[in-house]
Amino acid sequence: MTIRVAVIGAAGRMGSHAVEAIEAAEGLELVATVGREDSLDTVLEAGAEVAVELTVPKSTEDNVRFLVEHGLKAVVGTTGWDAEKLARLEELLTAHPESAVLIAPNFSIGAVLAMHFAELAAPYFDSAEVVEIHHTRKLDAPSGTAVHTAQKIAAARTAAGLGAVPDNTESDPLGGRGAVVDGIHVHSVRQAGMNAHEEIHFGSMGEALTIRTDSWSTSAFMPGIVTAVKEIPHRTGLAVGLENYLSLRTA
Amino acid sequence: MTIRVAVIGAAGRMGSHAVEAIEAAEGLELVATVGREDSLDTVLEAGAEVAVELTVPKSTEDNVRFLVEHGLKAVVGTTGWDAEKLARLEELLTAHPESAVLIAPNFSIGAVLAMHFAELAAPYFDSAEVVEIHHTRKLDAPSGTAVHTAQKIAAARTAAGLGAVPDNTESDPLGGRGAVVDGIHVHSVRQAGMNAHEEIHFGSMGEALTIRTDSWSTSAFMPGIVTAVKEIPHRTGLAVGLENYLSLRTA
Amino acid sequence: MTIRVAVIGAAGRMGSHAVEAIEAAEGLELVATVGREDSLDTVLEAGAEVAVELTVPKSTEDNVRFLVEHGLKAVVGTTGWDAEKLARLEELLTAHPESAVLIAPNFSIGAVLAMHFAELAAPYFDSAEVVEIHHTRKLDAPSGTAVHTAQKIAAARTAAGLGAVPDNTESDPLGGRGAVVDGIHVHSVRQAGMNAHEEIHFGSMGEALTIRTDSWSTSAFMPGIVTAVKEIPHRTGLAVGLENYLSLRTA
Amino acid sequence: MTIRVAVIGAAGRMGSHAVEAIEAAEGLELVATVGREDSLDTVLEAGAEVAVELTVPKSTEDNVRFLVEHGLKAVVGTTGWDAEKLARLEELLTAHPESAVLIAPNFSIGAVLAMHFAELAAPYFDSAEVVEIHHTRKLDAPSGTAVHTAQKIAAARTAAGLGAVPDNTESDPLGGRGAVVDGIHVHSVRQAGMNAHEEIHFGSMGEALTIRTDSWSTSAFMPGIVTAVKEIPHRTGLAVGLENYLSLRTA
């Protein structure tokens, strides 16, 4: 049973990788690619069941509305989905219960798993810190993913009744201890030749657990997109975050 | 509500660490320590609710039987529990439903979490390999934990419908590709100054996920023992493996 | 003082990267590119002082002879220079003392430095092992670089009077201890998404030193080529190995 | 030819490890141990050739003076040797040219090698950053070793004519980029269960070189002390820094 897939935003950096990934994936057939000038009708005419939407914030809501109204299922990687847009989409999906939409700010399976693992591990260790390494063109520090990871760790510690991480630093005039996000220290390395990397450190008396993700290029997002496309035929309604489409429980 | 704890095998390497850890843990009170020459009655007289059993394979079954028959709960770190002994214990627990026994071959929380994470991650990556590093006194290779990790990864891949890991090696006259356990390659490094360490590598197009555990000493097992002692009052019956006492699901 | 540079083999994978790197480098001017169909006279006509030779084993000797005979200096990345060819080249250079040739099997500065550091560190640690990680298209194991690293470590240990590395392994039925090169264990990991990586482990009582190199693409060789092109105007004669053109001593 | 060794400060943490290490080392014979109450004459009476001085800042200068005046050679690990004391010692050694003193603030061979390698590598990479990880009892950040490493890297970059490391960070309100020491970013992680660890990151287009040292305990300093004791019979005069006693050049 091959799934018929369209890519909207096929000419962009993510889109062109997605086209290649879908063409290469077993069980998926690429039936349409839509660029900025093309009509979305192409998707319908090609008989696509699933559309991968990788365009720009100002177009994504209209595109997804069109897909839902025509009963297609949509895997969306475009950013810009604020609470208001999500509320409108949820309402629309109620009226089209046969449709399904996954909105994923991060299609890196490694990053999504790492964050999930960090949440599970956090209650069991005295210390937790995050080190992120990115290319030198990055404008902000710490990275959004690292901040998000620290927040999840902090919440999991609080839920488990843990107090502050142990830290006896008395003198740090230059700020070596880095950023503090909800009580968790986050360090940002900028290194030529690197892309996007994160190392989550947990430690207790006599032991350490370290979770590292490396993402070298846009192609790192493709396994996540392919996984989502294969899963969405079995889903209905709205999901935000790729983790909802992964199987994160053992038997 | 303080939990009253006895340590059986208190003079051994693990036992003496356990004594210290229980004394240091909030919410636990050490009420008895039992050495090779001492009677188990000490445990009863001291009013212990939970006993930590860290003796030797030939004593452990009798000790645990005594504890169960007297309605205590037992956290057991001694090895040697084969299928037959486990069956006898399970029968005994049926007759004493107020008791509970946790038998844990590995009290390292980091190692237990790492194995769990490896199972969850395995279905999502093309490649998976295990590198373990141990001290140079170790007699066997690969380590039992590494073999077990590889088996779990292999089973998770099979369950997810994945085939063999990609490998185009045609020439490897010296055996550089290491041990193969259920199709997963395992590498054993022996290094002076190290203790017990494992690195689980997952990779796909453009990304990697690496899970590393470091265990530097027997003290690494203490957080696991303390966690188990705190959890066992809420449990009944038999559990094998510390993972059963950890909370491994997010809300 | 700009150095005038030609690239021979400019259409190949290495060559096209070299063209870009030389164009981008301060102090270098790309004055000619030579493809398979082009005459080497182009190099002379363009007034190049240095030529980067990145062709194929069967052409490289003739190309380098031409360059030397015309008094140019040549940075050569092509393989296939056996002892006989090197002897002929050395003789030729005696007749052209104004010329210089660097033949470098590996232009990765990181890899060259790592090997040098491994040699320096080897005498001071009880244990030494090498783990290399490569993409899954690689046909042979262990990698040539890892074998070479192990040989250098072994030689440095011998020179320092060290005996065999400590290893008490008695049982290793699956070959987890990996390849043994001159007494040094080498482990080969094959992982989708990776390119070429090496980790050199040294350990003694209470401490470890780890040297890691990561090379993600052909572009990793460009800093080495640029460094060589900038250095060769100050050199005469033959050098084999980029390490000869690096400054590896502190003041 | 066995070297006869005395340990002064034998009851301290470093001293007691040193006693064990010298007893275990081939070619060394422990002939005297001196505690706080003992006379230094013990060292002379025992016929020691080399003394390892591991006491406290207020005693070390007198002890070393005594050793030099009696023609012994001294390996000194005690801190507190300021410029003034060093000048006096140098003068004293001029009058006793048969003596030799090594003053080493850090006996970890791994740390000394790592710093040396960092200096050698620094000129060849666009980016360089330092991450240090220490136990949670540490009072200051960044660690002295990390600051020293950053200074050495900065000096080596300047000497090679390199400019500032590339960094386009525009927004870092929480200080994730860490401390900046002579233009090099330094990050300080504090983690329960760890001891003293440093990771030096170098990166350029397409490649990375990472040097990591791990020091788990005082025992990590013993190989450095043993190496110094074996080397000092061949030396005269004053040396500051273990690196002066290591062989850091290849043939």
TrEMBL record, chains A, B, C, D:
Protein family per UniProt: Belongs to the DapB family.
Enzyme Commission number(s) of this protein: 1.17.1.8
Sites where the protein binds (S)-2,3,4,5-tetrahydrodipicolinate: 135, 144-145
Top enzyme category: oxidoreductase
A Pfam family: DapB_N
Residues that, per the record, bind NAD(+): 9-14, 77-79, 104-107
Protein name: 4-hydroxy-tetrahydrodipicolinate reductase
Pathway assigned in UniProt: Amino-acid biosynthesis; L-lysine biosynthesis via DAP pathway; (S)-tetrahydrodipicolinate from L-aspartate: step 4/4
Assembly: Homotetramer.
InterPro entries assigned: DapB_C (IPR022663), DapB_N (IPR000846), DapB_N_CS (IPR022664), DHDPR_bac (IPR023940), NAD(P)-bd_dom_sf (IPR036291)
Keyword Membrane: no
Domain Dihydrodipicolinate reductase N-terminal: 3-107
Top-rank lineage group of the source organism: Bacteria
Active-site residues, record numbering mapped to chain: 134 (proton donor/acceptor), 138 (proton donor)
Cell compartments where the protein resides: Cytoplasm
